[in-house]
Amino acid sequence: MEDEVRQPTDGPLYTRLRDHLAAEITSGRLAAGTRLASERALSERYGYSRLTVRRALADLEEAGLLVRRRGSGTFVAERLIRKNVRGLASFSEDMRQRGLTPGSIVLRQELVFLEEEQAQMLKVAAHEGAVCLRRLRLANDVPMALETVFLPAALCPGLVRRTDLDRVSLYEVLEREYNLSADYAEEVVEAVNASEEVARLLRVAPGSALLWIRRLTSAKDRGPFEYVESLYCGDKYSLGLNVRRLGQ
How far is CA 106 from CA 112, 133, 146, 167, 200, in A? Predict the structure, then answer.
């Protein structure tokens, strides 16, 4: 971080420091996750009072560029990943397109019986087995989402025994080996709070805001083949969609 504040001389002192730090963040010179020096250290470095530093940091926090963590300090906020609800891409594809390295930790991989509502959505009998795959989804080794997938076992024999689902794209496996290509999906999005278990896995505070996304995915020639429930970190994701006025 450069020590010299290269800003116009007009305006309150705190705005000069605020704008300088904002430029450092948006340019990437201060990377996401970087811990800022203390208010005292910043005051000494830039020659401003601690009150001026505090006000500049408060503005940056309000703008979403900084995150204050009690007992840990102030950090550069992670950039929000804009999730386009009209697009249909796997998590792995999405992360790669953003220049991030996708990863997964398999938490559960077994055969289960579907609940009646899930079976109806997937158009199978409730007594039929399904593959349940629960994974912690990562980007550059940072937890982004907790994902639970249900797939009728009859459509993907042998999938439950695979040992590489922490390293490969599930959609690529389904398309290549089972001829199941995602063509259409319906999603429902709700805001929820993280339970203690989910918070521990996603490395957020209990009660943190999450996006709960439920998706039913269909193949063009088969219909519904996948039901997914995902919990996305609310501080890392925003939703984007395009709308048109009815009748236009």
Answer: 16, 7, 10, 10, 15
The H or E element containing residue 137 is strand 129-139
Residue 154 and residue 128 in contact, taking contact as beta carbons nearer than 8 Å: yes
Print the domain residue range for 41: 13-76
Domain boundary among 42, 76, 110: 76
**In this structure, are 149 and 217 located in the same domain?**
yes
- What's the token pair of residue 149? 């997938």
Question: Is residue 2 domain-resident?
Answer: no
33-83 pLDDT, tens digit per residue, is 889 999 999 999 999 999 999 999 998 887 778 888 878 889 988 766 666
What's the CATH number where 70 sits?
1.10.10.10
pTM: 0.68
Query: Is residue 6 within 8 Å of 19, Cβ to Cβ?
Result: no
3-state secondary structure of 84: strand
CA distance 182 to 210: 25
